[in-house]
Design brief:
single chain, 83 residues, mainly alpha
Length: 83
């Protein structure tokens, strides 16, 4: 428990850069899940999985863009600056 606590609240630049890379990897997984959901919905004409709720589809596309850009790209680039 102490190791996890000290790693999470560390002020060491290498630990912070590693933490950013781990968070970026998690964002990649979430962004990929959104991307797969978008692609499944677009496999055929009409509505497949979102039950005709076009606002949900738009929200998934927007969430995918935010996760990929602000949480993946930003954290990967910023972790390289720190490391």
């Amino acid at each position: 428990m102490t190791s996890c606590y000290s790693f999470t609240f560390s002020t060491n630049a290498k630990d912070i850069g590693t933490f950013y890379l781990v968070f970026a990897l998690f964002a990649v997984i979430v962004g990929t899940a959104f991307s797969i959901l978008i692609r499944i919905e677009l496999t055929g004409p009409g509505v497949q999985y979102l039950n005709g709720d076009h606002q949900t589809y738009n929200s998934v596309v927007t969430a995918h863009a935010f996760v990929i850009f602000f949480f993946m790209v930003y954290f990967i680039l910023y972790s390289q600056v720190i490391i």
